[in-house]
Write a structure and sequence with these properties.
The protein is rod-shaped and about 75 Å long. It has a domain at 19-95. 86% of the residues lie in helices and 0% in strands. It is an all-alpha fold. It comes from Tahibacter harae.
């Protein structure tokens, strides 16, 4: 009874995975993954999140290979993982840029404080 309930819950939680994925499902997932990869690249992930971007690129190659083999379900899953990896690469890239900007502002404030202290003393 418990096993049946768990399987049912898993099937309801992942409606796209409840049955075998179609070619259309895999193509949609690969399109979304490709868009996420492009967004990560535009965000500078090649320089700031190279490892995550590399994982996403490898995942895309795997998804494409599975699609060429007509393994639609695994292709869709690989594409969805690719999208997640690309989103992570983009987020880490944006975080690195934000941290660098914050550090620049803190450095400028520190310099201004030193200047104000020197002028006042």
């Amino acid at each position: 009874m418990k096993a049946t309930a768990l399987i049912l819950a898993a099937a309801l939680a992942l409606p796209g995975l409840a049955g075998a994925a179609s070619r259309h499902d895999a193509e949609l997932a690969m399109t979304a993954a490709a868009a996420a990869l492009q967004a990560a690249e535009r965000a500078g992930a090649a320089e700031l999140a190279a490892s995550d971007l590399g994982n996403a690129r490898n995942g895309m190659a795997q998804a494409e290979g599975l699609a060429n083999a007509r393994d639609w379900t695994d292709s869709m899953l690989a594409a969805e993982k690719t999208r997640a990896d690309a989103n992570l690469a983009e987020a880490r890239s944006r975080q690195a840029r934000a941290e660098a900007a914050t550090q620049e502002i803190e450095d400028a404030l520190r310099a201004l404080r030193v200047e104000v202290d020197s002028a006042g003393g």
